[in-house]
Amino acid sequence: MTGVGIILGTAAYMSPEQARGKAVDKRADIWAFGVVLYEMPTGRQLFAGETVSDTIAEVLKREFDWSALPAAAGGPPPARTRAATRSREAAARHGRCDRCLVFP
């Protein structure tokens, strides 16, 4: 079990609240899933730094570059999905994938 103030996890996939050592819930997992979904079609790591500290700093400040998504992957996602995944504040993100994913 981990507690508030303890950072545990792979830095590049941490949600901002997790990187800050705050309490996390299922939205942290949804954030990490969104990072993986971004990385799959782009072929590049979204948050990368020379050190773990640099990577955490990227998680806390860097925005998703939606234009990096190739056209074959459908290009930038719908606004609802972007809004659900890009917020640095957990309270502003959806707590369920079915509320943020939009399928044609």
Describe this structure in words.
The chain is mainly α and 104 residues long. The chain has a single domain (11-87), classed as Transferase(Phosphotransferase), domain 1. The protein is built from four helices and no strands. The chain has helices at 16-19, 26-42, 52-61, 79-86. The termini are far apart. The mean pLDDT is 76.
What would the average pLDDT be, to the nearest integer?
76
Tally of helical runs: 4
SSE string: HHHH
Unreliable spans are none
* Helix content class: 25-40%
List the helices and strands and how they pair.
Blueprint: H1 16-19, H2 26-42, H3 52-61, H4 79-86
Describe this structure in a few short sentences.
The chain is 38% helix and 0% strand. With 104 residues, it is mainly α.
Structural features:
mainly alpha; single chain; 104 residues; Transferase(Phosphotransferase), domain 1
